[in-house]
């Protein structure tokens, strides 16, 4: 009798899991509460995989021996509760796919910097190894495992993907940093969210590595009270470390197993303190996997960053337009505002996930000349900043927001889209929001 797997959600991770499960002899049923995108529907039909949309057939799903839940579906969803009550195991795509590969896995999580760190790590490893990039970015891990052609994976993992793991154990795990995010999914308890991130190391052994920001108080606090088996390798920009990465005389130094790597910060392709940390994390991985030092240096010099993360779009009338749509939380926007060198018109807003804007007050006071709200509900933003920023304008969509910004910005100013919020009220996702911004800027 075939094992049956039910898959909730027919997006990137759901369809990837369906392909991998079918290949491994499972009877597969894909169920999406909403509508399935045409490109995914086509894949399901071509591969003769059973699917439904616009609701869940509970009786059929309860027959499954295993359920893969897409990361976007909360634990509180009625169908997920029902499965748990009936003792049907509910796992994530990452957990399901990892049992079908012997590849070396580098897994990266954190509140900010994970996409940049993952992309940078991949670009270094890709110059010397057979490696794929996946997880929360690009093609799904499951689909790439089903292709059976990769010996190494770099995975960007969200807390939601980590919530659904049981045995997943990466050889190298990274936590880039911690700041409050997605608290709406964690009962508004920061400690629940933190515990979720650290699941990345729970199955690691003494032969594995855990790389982390040694300057991050929350990470240090957690590691002090929770012993882990993996070898701990910190990176720090404030102090020298024996094993790990640190800064001395404006050079990055990495010391691991008697291997020493050094590189001037000034030659990094991406500048700014947080990017220096991303570079330290990525080059620590590359050093552990024995990539040549010269290769690491060249990759770090040439890497220009990822789309929607402080991406320079255009200069119009000497005003620079910057797309930082990927800033879906306050901490990411903090980095963005911190890196602004000129008076800034700041486009902000969206779905607030329990944001605390206090930490932005100093920067907004120093850098921001006008705020443009881009969300259905902007009360909290107005309440926080109306005392320190004279001009706050509410807009109904991206095109309007960009036109207002164009009017408010003077020569040598910057217009910055850095929303500090999720995008689901007006946009499909942060990529859609970023693309709409770029399109509106090009139309000016």
TrEMBL record:
<keyword id="KW-0573">Peptidoglycan synthesis</keyword>
<comment type="pathway">
    <text>Cell wall biogenesis; peptidoglycan biosynthesis.</text>
</comment>
<dbReference type="InterPro" id="IPR004101">
    <property type="entry name" value="Mur_ligase_C"/>
</dbReference>
<keyword id="KW-0436">Ligase</keyword>
<dbReference type="GO" id="GO:0005524">
    <property type="term" value="F:ATP binding"/>
</dbReference>
<keyword id="KW-0547">Nucleotide-binding</keyword>
<keyword id="KW-0961">Cell wall biogenesis/degradation</keyword>
<dbReference type="Pfam" id="PF21377">
    <property type="entry name" value="MurD_N"/>
</dbReference>
<feature type="binding site">
    <location>
        <begin position="110"/>
        <end position="116"/>
    </location>
    <ligand>
        <name>ATP</name>
    </ligand>
</feature>
<keyword id="KW-0131">Cell cycle</keyword>
<keyword id="KW-0963">Cytoplasm</keyword>
<comment type="function">
    <text>Cell wall formation. Catalyzes the addition of glutamate to the nucleotide precursor UDP-N-acetylmuramoyl-L-alanine (UMA).</text>
</comment>
<dbReference type="InterPro" id="IPR013221">
    <property type="entry name" value="Mur_ligase_cen"/>
</dbReference>
<keyword id="KW-0133">Cell shape</keyword>
<dbReference type="GO" id="GO:0071555">
    <property type="term" value="P:cell wall organization"/>
</dbReference>
<dbReference type="InterPro" id="IPR005762">
    <property type="entry name" value="MurD"/>
</dbReference>
<dbReference type="InterPro" id="IPR036615">
    <property type="entry name" value="Mur_ligase_C_dom_sf"/>
</dbReference>
<comment type="similarity">
    <text>Belongs to the MurCDEF family.</text>
</comment>
<keyword id="KW-0132">Cell division</keyword>
<dbReference type="GO" id="GO:0008360">
    <property type="term" value="P:regulation of cell shape"/>
</dbReference>
<dbReference type="GO" id="GO:0009252">
    <property type="term" value="P:peptidoglycan biosynthetic process"/>
</dbReference>
<dbReference type="GO" id="GO:0008764">
    <property type="term" value="F:UDP-N-acetylmuramoylalanine-D-glutamate ligase activity"/>
</dbReference>
<dbReference type="InterPro" id="IPR036565">
    <property type="entry name" value="Mur-like_cat_sf"/>
</dbReference>
<feature type="domain" description="Mur ligase central">
    <location>
        <begin position="108"/>
        <end position="286"/>
    </location>
</feature>
<protein>
    <recommendedName>
        <fullName>UDP-N-acetylmuramoylalanine--D-glutamate ligase</fullName>
        <ecNumber>6.3.2.9</ecNumber>
    </recommendedName>
</protein>
<dbReference type="Pfam" id="PF08245">
    <property type="entry name" value="Mur_ligase_M"/>
</dbReference>
<dbReference type="GO" id="GO:0051301">
    <property type="term" value="P:cell division"/>
</dbReference>
<feature type="domain" description="Mur ligase C-terminal">
    <location>
        <begin position="308"/>
        <end position="421"/>
    </location>
</feature>
<dbReference type="Pfam" id="PF02875">
    <property type="entry name" value="Mur_ligase_C"/>
</dbReference>
<keyword id="KW-0067">ATP-binding</keyword>
<dbReference type="GO" id="GO:0005737">
    <property type="term" value="C:cytoplasm"/>
</dbReference>
């Amino acid at each position: 009798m075939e094992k049956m797997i039910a898959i909730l959600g027919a997006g990137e991770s759901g369809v990837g899991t369906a392909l991998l499960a079918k290949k491994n002899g499972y009877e597969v049923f894909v169920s999406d509460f909403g509508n399935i995108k045409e490109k995914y529907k086509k894949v399901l039909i071509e591969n003769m995989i059973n699917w439904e949309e616009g609701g869940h057939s509970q009786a059929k799903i309860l027959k499954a021996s295993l359920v893969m839940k897409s990361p976007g579906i909360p634990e509180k969803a009625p169908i997920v509760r029902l499965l748990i009550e009936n003792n049907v195991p509910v796992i994530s795509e990452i957990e399901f796919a990892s049992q079908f590969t012997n590849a070396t896995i580098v897994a990266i999580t954190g509140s900010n910097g994970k996409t940049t760190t993952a992309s940078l790590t991949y670009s270094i490893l890709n110059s010397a190894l057979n490696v794929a990039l996946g997880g929360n970015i690009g093609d799904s891990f499951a689909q790439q495992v089903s292709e059976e052609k990769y010996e190494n994976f770099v995975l960007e993992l969200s807390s939601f993907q980590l919530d659904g793991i049981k045995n997943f154990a990466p050889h190298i795990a990274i936590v880039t940093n911690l700041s409050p995010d997605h608290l709406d999914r964690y009962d508004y308890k920061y400690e629940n969210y933190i515990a979720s991130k650290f699941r990345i190391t729970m199955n690691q052994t003494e032969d594995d590595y855990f790389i982390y920001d040694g300057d991050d108080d929350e990470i240090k606090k957690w590691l002090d009270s929770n012993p882990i088996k993996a070898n701990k390798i910190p990176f720090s920009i404030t102090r020298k470390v024996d094993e790990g990465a640190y800064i001395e005389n404006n050079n990055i130094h990495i010391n691991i197993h008697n291997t020493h790597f050094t590189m001037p910060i000034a030659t990094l392709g991406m500048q700014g303190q947080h990017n220096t940390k991303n570079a330290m994390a990525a080059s620590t991985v590359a050093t552990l996997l024995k990539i040549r030092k010269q290769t690491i240096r060249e990759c770090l010099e040439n890497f220009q960053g990822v789309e929607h993360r402080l991406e320079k779009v255009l200069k119009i009338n000497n005003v620079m337009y910057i797309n930082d749509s990927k800033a879906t939380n306050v901490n990411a926007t903090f980095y963005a505002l911190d890196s602004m060198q000129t008076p800034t018109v700041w486009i902000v807003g969206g779905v607030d996930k329990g944001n605390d804007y206090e930490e932005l007050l100093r920067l907004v006071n120093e850098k921001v000349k006008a705020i443009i709200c881009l969300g259905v509900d902007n009360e909290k933003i107005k309440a926080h900043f109306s005392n320190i920023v004279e001009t706050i304008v509410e807009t109904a969509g991206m095109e309007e927001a960009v036109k207002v910004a164009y009017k408010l910005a003077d020569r040598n100013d910057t217009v910055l889209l850095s929303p500090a919020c999720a995008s689901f009220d007006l946009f499909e996702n942060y990529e859609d929001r970023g693309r709409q911004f770029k399109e509106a800027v090009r139309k000016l």
